[in-house]
Amino acid sequence: MEKKLKVGILGGTGMVGQRFISLLEHHPWYDVVTIAASERSAGKTYEEAVGNRWKMTTPMPDAVKNIVVMNVNEVEKVAATVDFVFSAVDMTKEEIKAIEEAYAQTETPVVSNNSAHRWTPDVPMVIPEINPEHFEVIEHQKKRLGTTRGFIAVKPNCSIQSYVPALNAWKEFEPYEVVATTYQAISGAGKTFTEWPEMIENIIPYIGGEEEKSEQEPLRVWGKIVDGVIEKAAEPVITCQCVRVPVLNGHTAAAFVKFRKKPTKEQLIEKLNNYKGLPQELTLPSAPRQFIKYMEEDNRPQVKADVDYENGMGVTIGRIREDNVYDFKFIGLSHNTVRGAAGGAVLCAETLTAQGYIKAK
């Protein structure tokens, strides 16, 4: 790319916004020029606005420290400074829907980490290695919005990244029933242990709304475009429990699967290790070289050892074994704020850029 695209981060002071800024620090295609947040942060430098709330393990990039934060609600003013935006705003669902559509209607593409538009029928919800063809629905969305280049695209919930890629790699064996339990890190709630001391040595067996997302969002990822909207798939039927565990980063899943065409363990492993998607074919900047890696050791994947596989953009799977009720069971692990949040959105943006949906204004 000859000239970097100008990027804005909506909700740039929160944990996911900070992750966007960290991931984009040396990005070859994108340059963060604008950060927008709530009215209370507007007018301060980014360093002043974040203060002691910087939650990343790497230092705040020097390039953003003196950027003066804009008011995210001044849509036209913010949009005029950028080619597209990433959205990580902390608002109600209805407020998020409205503000993301407002940005899109300024002819500014919006790549969102938020859940608000995940079920809007003409908004693509994409894991780029699995369903990039859903970006085609953007043309129908533009007609509804009355735009020529403005649109909204979203990535799915962080919890599904730890088991859905494996199920997708095994599609030819027709998985039709799945039981999953996810063990989810506290950064998924935007927290650290300092802010949430009651999570130390504790497990909370409830995360609001998470089980429905974990059961339903995979079916939308596997859906088809019909008459300009995405219709969700009927199978596999998924039932899920979601548990908050005392881990900073990394969502682990324990899953049980029934297949119509029963594979061997060796076939399952081979499909994982050889799985490639469009980001690998296009060698996109954030794409993991190997999206899914099978780990042979009985005690892997582990959060401490494996969460940063492929810079947090890869998925590790282990402990595939036959089950006496289901056909097979396995363990999956993904980085919830990289692959599951900001990194997944950056990879969506890269795919959209490569396909010509995002370009300079």
From TrEMBL:
Listed EC numbers: 1.2.1.11
UniProt cross-references to InterPro entries, sorted A to Z: ASADH-related, Asp_semi-ald_DH_pep-lack, NAD(P)-bd_dom_sf, Semialdehyde_DH_NAD-bd, Semialdhyde_DH_dimer_dom
Semialdehyde dehydrogenase NAD-binding domain segment(s): 6-138
Protease in keyword set: no
Alphabetical keyword list: NADP, Oxidoreductase
Superkingdom per UniProt: Bacteria
Family named by the database record: Belongs to the aspartate-semialdehyde dehydrogenase family.
Protein known as: Aspartate-semialdehyde dehydrogenase
The gene coding this protein: asd
